DNA sequence: GTGTTTCGAAACTCAAGCGTATCGAATACG
DNA sequence: CGTATTCGATACGCTTGAGTTTCGAAACAC
């Protein structure tokens, strides 16, 4: 830390409170350390503020001055993860399914995003506000997007007319998630045509 | 507790040690309480011996006299869950796939079994011995059985000749798991033809 | 310079939970 | 009966971590 990284947006109507300004660098370090540790230790109860402070090279005071407790910090940290859904080319449903499958694959292979899913699925009754926020920010938009894509496929005749959309969604998402979990997570991302193979497999079906 | 439930197998070569015998009822109560709490609190670190003792109506002494630590208790408790794989009728691959899908559905809806999966997937580096044992006792046999069934289908021509077995396994297992997680867990088990619909969906594929 | 606020570090209080030890009562054997 | 062991209950020492407080130093405004 040779240079000073303190600053404030200093809007005209916020006349810059007196005293030393809060370090933006410290804030980013705290968020990063939190996400790192969330990615390593899966349970939220294993995640300690002291470990976050140590990892971030920051005093606990600096954390508690910004967030009043662990859950508030987690809400802010996890909300920085929501990668935007990629735009769809919109040419063929198959191509768009592959685009989404690639996103699912990438997220499923990333430790941070994987833990968001674990938290959303496992800690619903222990951290309802946190899980609710994750659902609204990340999960629900993706569900809606995939459902809309599947319905588009039914409408255009590219998919079966009697398609069961909930089952088809479980097909796509569940296959990707389970594949990554069982067949080594890291290597799966490398083979770039995996998403393509999974989608074609689903479209064609298992039957002869 | 009006009657006495103490006993010992008392084989001829084990001459029944002196003193009050250990209570088989207490042992069962401990295992049951452990599985109940595992089914409620998903993380192993949230699971406390003291809560197990309280739930089982048992002193901590009675637990520590039988298991030296929490992990040993968990290994024994979880190993009582392994429901045997059902025999296959062996007539058609579709029927056998439905049999397995039903087993997967039932297990995925049961809180206890669901937590075994969570532990196996999430706590690999924290409890390697426990996870290893779960894998050998429960997961690996099922993986092998499903893989064998799929290969049989390829051999008999009921399934595509170019079937990618790992992807097909992720299809079946992932679809069931994900469906239960997203579309209400409890109700899914009720509709008895869900397994059938999922399998037929997979066999036919999504394409028109 | 003075005043105000934040900084990292360290100490603190408080609660939870592990694993152990001790207690009187209960249950077996002989 | 005496002896041995387990029973549930309780207390203990110990560690971990949450959240607070205090401290001297640093970073700003004036």
Short description, anyone?
Chain A contains 10 helices and no strands.
Structure description:
The structure is a homodimer of 208-residue chains. Chain A has 208 residues and is mostly helical. Helix content of chain A is 64%, strand content 0%. In chain A, helix 1 packs across helix 6, helix 5 crosses helix 10 and helix 7 packs across helix 8. Chains A and B meet through helix 6, helix 7, helix 8 and helix 10 of A and helix 6, helix 7, helix 8 and helix 10 of B.
Largest interface: A-B, 46 and 45 residues
Low-confidence stretches of chain A: 7-12
Q: N-to-C SSE series of chain A? A: HHHHHHHHHH
Fraction of residues in H or I helices of chain A: 55-70%
Give the amount of beta strand of chain A, in percent.
under 5%
- Identify the overall geometry of chain A: elongated
**End-to-end C-alpha gap of chain A:** 65 Å
- For the report, how would you describe the main beta sheet of chain A? none
How confident is the prediction overall: mean pLDDT of chain A? 87
Task: Tally the beta strands of chain A.
Answer: 0
> Helical segment tally of chain A?
10
Seen as an oligomer or otherwise, the chain set is homodimer
Provide the gyration radius of chain A in Å: 21 Å
Which secondary-structure class do the elements of chain A indicate?
mainly alpha
